[in-house]
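Per your request, structure below.
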């Protein structure tokens, strides 16, 4: 039994998350599919990593001073990570979030002591978009910094220095493919850049939900969105600062229904309660695994990100009425009546 030594502080609990072989996806792909359990971070999502690196970077540059405030626009998980790290460092937090995100995220942010500002969901070009609103609030608040997770490359640095080396060590230096969706782009760009430095033959694939524009960008060179998705925190319509230079080799577009099927199976068959972004990532990993096998790499190993816990979506993804309202299939154990 491998038991680690005690951690020196709570911040050091971020990262070094477990990696698990996913049986159903591995069988479906015909090769090894692994999930990085980012829900094991203190804030229960992959975004804890970006939160820590962004705050630490601002401290090192002298922008964030004792007693200061961190302001950010987020779909929720980055805000939760920022609130936890800020609490541990002695800062205040202001989080701007679209009002169509899960109630659990809103309740969690308030419980963590963050000041929560809700705005209507709108396109990025709108000056009232949550990102632009958070920037203005940071400018108007004394002693505040704007985290700017979309274009602040301290975000992807968290994955260059943390997530990718962890994956490399956990898979003993043998990884054939990596895929995940992009929200800010920090995870796929950072992991992709670092893995390519270790082995240029690792295939980096974007897994894009419907309603996002990146699939068409990497496939056809045009930022063009098609369809829609209820997935929170993923999907992007522009090339963010974190996505610039991302080494994307191939791309897959995954529907909510396909992602939900893996959410259902991973819970019922393997005991993992996950959010829809994780289900979409796993569907993408299966698609990449099948592609690698078809290319003759029958012993391929593919890794993806299990972004957050399904407990954050009890009022939506795991609610029969909500699923019906979105014309999505209802998990059989929730009842069909």
């Amino acid at each position: 039994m491998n038991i680690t030594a005690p951690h020196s502080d709570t911040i050091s609990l971020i990262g070094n998350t477990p990696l698990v072989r996913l049986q159903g996806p591995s069988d479906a792909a015909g090769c090894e599919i692994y999930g990085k359990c980012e829900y094991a971070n203190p804030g229960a999502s992959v975004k804890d990593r970006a939160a820590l690196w962004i705050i630490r970077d601002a401290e090192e540059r002298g922008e964030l001073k004792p007693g200061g405030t961190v302001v950010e626009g987020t779909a929720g998980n980055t805000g939760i990570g920022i609130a936890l790290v800020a609490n541990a460092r002695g800062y205040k937090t202001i989080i701007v979030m679209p009002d169509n995100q899960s109630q659990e995220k809103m309740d969690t942010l308030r419980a963590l002591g963050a000041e929560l500002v809700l705005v209507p969901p709108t396109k990025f070009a709108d000056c009232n978009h949550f990102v632009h609103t958070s920037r203005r609030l940071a400018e108007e608040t004394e002693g505040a910094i704007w985290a700017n997770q979309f274009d602040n490359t301290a975000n992807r640095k968290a994955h260059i220095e943390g997530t990718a080396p962890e994956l490399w060590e956990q898979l003993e230096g043998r990884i054939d493919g990596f895929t995940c969706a992009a929200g800010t782009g920090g995870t796929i760009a950072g992991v992709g850049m670092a893995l390519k430095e270790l082995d240029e033959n690792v295939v980096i694939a974007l897994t894009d939900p419907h309603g996002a524009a990146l699939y068409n960008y990497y496939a056809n060179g045009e930022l063009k969105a098609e369809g829609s998705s209820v997935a929170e925190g993923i999907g992007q319509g522009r090339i963010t600062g974190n996505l610039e230079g991302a080494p994307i080799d191939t791309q897959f577009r995954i529907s909510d229904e396909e992602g939900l099927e893996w959410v259902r199976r991973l819970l019922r068959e393997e005991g993992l309660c996950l959010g829809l972004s994780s289900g979409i990532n796993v569907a993408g990993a299966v698609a990449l695994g099948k592609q690698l096998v078809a290319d003759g790499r029958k012993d391929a190993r593919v890794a993806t990100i299990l972004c957050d816990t399904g407990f954050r979506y009890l009022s939506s993804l795991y609610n029969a009425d909500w699923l019906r309202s979105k014309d999505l299939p209802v998990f059989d154990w929730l009842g069909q009546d």
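The longest strand covers residues 92-98.

Regards,
D.
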